[in-house]
Amino acid sequence: MRHLLDTRSLSRDDALLILDTAEDMSATQQREVKKLPTLRGKTVVNLFYEDSTRTRISFEAAAKRLSADVINFSAKGSSVSKGESLKDTAQTLQAIGADGVVIRHSASGAPARLASSGWIEAGVLNAGDGTHEHPTQALLDAFTMRRRLFGADASRGRDLDGISVVIVGDLAHSRVARSNLWLLTTLGARVTFVAPETLQPYGSRLWPVTVRHSLDEALRADAPDVVMLLRVQTERMHAAFFPNEREYARNWGLDDARFARLPERTLVMHPGPMNRGLEISSAAADSASSTVLEQVANGVSVRMAALYLLLSGEREAKA
Ligand code: NCD
Q: How far is the CA of 283 from the centre of ligand 1 (A)?
């Protein structure tokens, strides 16, 4: 593995290697001293052209726990706001000797462009590009499912064969939904997308997914092991996609009444940031079924695994 750009092209073996390595990383995070010397002398640049809290600090914590030097670069306050191109920024990073670049960008395909451009030799990790993919989010979600459903000890080497996952919400704008669909399918899970027609991704009928419009129907028919809620991403909406927030919550939200009807063993997941009261009620978000904070904690282990697998040792000759 030279780069981590998407989950669509990630093989089952590589996905399991990342998840199993994340289990090893997680074990080291229970120790009093959490830092490992693995990436000493390497430089990781966090290149964030879009806002982020969780993902940015998670990558930063992961790189630091592997002893890498971390440079945080946010587009606001940099030459990017003066109109510097991705190419010039990339060449600057090459000149300072970056070994890894973690990039979040509003343009789908920006990380792939960076990886294939020849502008830099660094390994590229996609931290979310437009509405395309967010591979480390899907990996940490799969890691969380595996652990919760099978336990940490029984997780190693296992995929998610036969698991039913219902993903609800703003699918049209969601890179998290896309990355989850590809990874979960590779790992043998069944995936259902639930949203009003206006928020179904274009082309989803050609994908390996059951498409539904009713959350109640999905909860009945698909007997989910996992219900994953997605944030309504108003910043990416340039039109009205549903009548109003009350209507959205009533039809597609995991509200108190729906949550009360869920079997206790059903996991409730959300990548954050949550709109409480819209796509998820506080009772659901703060319940024992919710994995929201575990997802954040597991994110560090999964990103440590990805950085380790991509950046440790001598980098392979340019592909
Ligand atoms: C997601 C993202 O940015 O794609 N959040 C995250 O990485 N934790 C989803 C979102 O913003 O709703």
A: 21
